[in-house]
UniProtKB/TrEMBL annotation:
Lineage: Bacteria, Pseudomonadati, Pseudomonadota, Alphaproteobacteria, Hyphomicrobiales
CDD domains: SgaA_N_like
Protein name (Swiss-Prot/TrEMBL): VOC family protein
Taxonomy, superkingdom: Bacteria
SUPFAM superfamilies: Glyoxalase/Bleomycin resistance protein/Dihydroxybiphenyl dioxygenase (SSF54593)
Organism listed in the record: Mesorhizobium shangrilense
Domain VOC: 8-121
Length: 121
């Protein structure tokens, strides 16, 4: 029997070396506050989303070598060019032009720790 989940991704985690910097970076780029949660063994900063089962958080950890590791596509409001500019203004790096596909537009980026992520409209 084959298992076909309702969502391909249930959760994601992004390791960061500086929680305050990461919260500021992602909140500024995504225009969406990350909520600090300290009830578990490590502090985490939760991405705010309507559906928490497809959400995620940043946590203190060891990021992969810059530009390696998985790439998470994070939703932003259009226009994508504005979000790409916010990446640069907040210490990240845009590593591709905006790429249009039938279901939307995305651009690959690196956060200040070198974690690969994409903006998605």
């Amino acid at each position: 029997m084959t298992f076909i989940p309702s969502k391909a991704s249930a959760w994601f985690e992004i390791p960061v070396t500086d929680m305050d910097r990461a919260r500021t970076f992602y909140a500024s780029v995504l225009q969406n506050d990350l909520v600090l949660e300290e009830s578990g063994p490590n502090p985490i900063a939760m991405f705010t989303a309507q559906d928490r089962m497809a959400s995620g958080h940043v946590y203190p950890g060891r990021p992969a070598t810059p530009g390696t590791g998985p790439t998470i596509h994070l939703s932003v409001a259009a226009p994508i060019d504005d979000a790409m500019e916010r990446v640069k203004q907040n210490g990240g790096q845009v590593v591709s032009p905006a790429i249009s596909i039938p279901v939307g537009t995305f651009a690959y980026c690196l956060d200040p720790d070198g974690n690969s992520f994409a903006l998605f409209v």
